[in-house]
Amino acid sequence: MLKGQALALRAHTYLTIASFYQYSYLKDSTAKTAPVYTTPTNASTQGNPKASLKEIYEVIFSDLLQAKELLAGYDRPAKYKINADVVNGLLARAYLNTGRWAFAAAAANEALQNYPLMAPSEYSKGFNDAGNSEWIWGHSEIPSQSDGSYAFHFLDVSSSSSYYYSYMADPFFGELFETGDIRKTLFSWDGSAAAREGYLQYKKFKFKADQTADLVLMRSAEAVLIKAEGYARAGNLPEGITALNQLRTARGAKLFDANGATADNLIREILIERRKELWGEGFGLSDIIRTQQAVVRKPYVDVNGNDIKVTVVKPDGSSKEVPARYHTALTFSDGTAFAANSPYYIFVVPQGEEQNNPNLNK
């Protein structure tokens, strides 16, 4: 059991590296990415050169398939423990990244079986409780050991214990949600302080009363979306539509109309749904890299180019109109337009690794 968990954890680490330190696997699977180590090392171990994405994913799949066998039947005592459901979820992510669509759908379907989508009333409670029915993998926090809470829940922009309040939503993102969708009710224009007036809060994440918050690592909602995308890209549109609408039904969102559906428009809707559902959970950038798309930012102005006014509620309960505030960086730092497959999206290998590993770029 312990070996299975260790293999799965190693696979998860390399899957994270493969997702952020190189372009999409489907762009170039031979691209050099990061060193791989599968045997114990010590202070005198010589560093390995970078392995290709293909080589890294070979390790990932080998580890996960072994872990799945070793963890079969393991009844974990808590959700921070890795079990076969977590392994299936990691397999689904890895299959999706590498374009093995049918395998991605099948693994995602296995992962989500024991984790029903939450009721709408649960969605507004703050994404801070590993006891949530959707959470496949999560880490509970307690007041005496709560550093993880602060490392993740800086996303909270509404609690008095948030402190930073810097993770505001783009107004165009808020417009993706229709009336009736439980997720739309979590948006509000901030009027609580002059420095924040007019920014769009998205109150998905909240600290608990004791200023802790559990960490979400994997949810069945993500698995449903991987299942939908896997089926859609494999050409099985009916199953893809069914999976997408399963999630939208749970959220009270408008259903995808199967009449006249094509693979392209279904995939586009699934990717939008991933943005809406998984906001703040670590998939925005990796999806841009994986699908070889570009960041899209534009000014939030009317047809005449004037700032759009929004109503904010001040701390004393009064309201007023102020210009909506939005991302002002509409290009890369060098002034060039956002583009697909930009090197700016790729994480840089840490300087310490470059200094300590003379074989890194061989």
Explain what the structure shows.
By secondary structure, this protein is mostly helical. It folds into two domains: 2-119 and 217-295 and 338-356, Serine Threonine Protein Phosphatase 5, Tetratricopeptide repeat (Alpha Horseshoe); 153-208 and 297-323, no CATH class. Helix content is 37%, strand content 9%. The chain has twelve helices and eight strands. The chain has helices spanning 2-20, 53-70, 84-97, 101-111, 120-123, 147-152, 171-174, 220-233, 237-251, 263-278, 284-290, 351-356; strands at residues 32-34, 51-52, 135-139, 187-189, 200-202, 215-219, 309-313, 319-323. The strands form four sheets. The protein has a two-stranded antiparallel ribbon. It has a two-stranded antiparallel sheet with strand order 3-6. Strands 4-5 form a two-stranded antiparallel ribbon. Helix 4 runs antiparallel to helix 8 (220-233). The longest helix has 19 residues, at 2-20. The radius of gyration is 22 Å and the shape is globular. It starts with a helix and ends in a 6-residue tail after the last helix. The model has no long low-confidence stretch (mean pLDDT 95).
